[in-house]
Amino acid sequence: MTTASPQRIFIVEDEVTIAFEMSDTLEDLGFEVVGPSVHLSDAEKKAANKTFDVACLDVNLGNGKTSKPVAEILRERSIPYVFLTAYDADQVDFIDDKDIVLKKPVSQQALVNAIKRAYSEAEA
Length: 124
Description:
This protein is of the alpha/beta class and 124 residues long. It has a single domain (8-123), classed as Rossmann fold, CATH 3.40.50. It has four helices and five strands, in the order E-H-E-H-E-H-E-E-H. Strands 2-1-3-4-5 form a five-stranded parallel β-sheet, sandwiched between helices. Helix 3 links the parallel strand 3 (54-58) and strand 4. Helix 2 packs parallel to helix 3 (68-77).
C-alpha cells in the first residue's frame, strides 16, 4: 500500500463556472487538474484515455445526461471517483452504497478530504 497522495484530478462538471472554480481551487492546493469536462462525450473520452488519480463527477450533466457512463469507465479502469450532487444519494439510482458522495455546495476541505479518501481506499 502506498501513502502517496493523489496528484492528478479529473473534473466532470457541466456548469462551466463551477468547473473552473473547482479547477482553480484544486490547482491552488497543488493538484494538477485534468479537464474539466463540461460535456458527457468529452468526459467519456478522457475517462477512457487520460491518466489521472481520482475523478470528481457531477451526477447531473444536464439535458437528461448523467455521469453514470463515466463512472462505469472509471470502475473498469480501477480509478477512484467522488460523486458531487445537489440530490440526496438515495435519489440517484446508479450510486452504490460504497460510493463517496458529496452534497453540493461542497466546501474546499470536504472536497479535498473526499478525494484523498477515495484515493486511499482504492490503494488499500
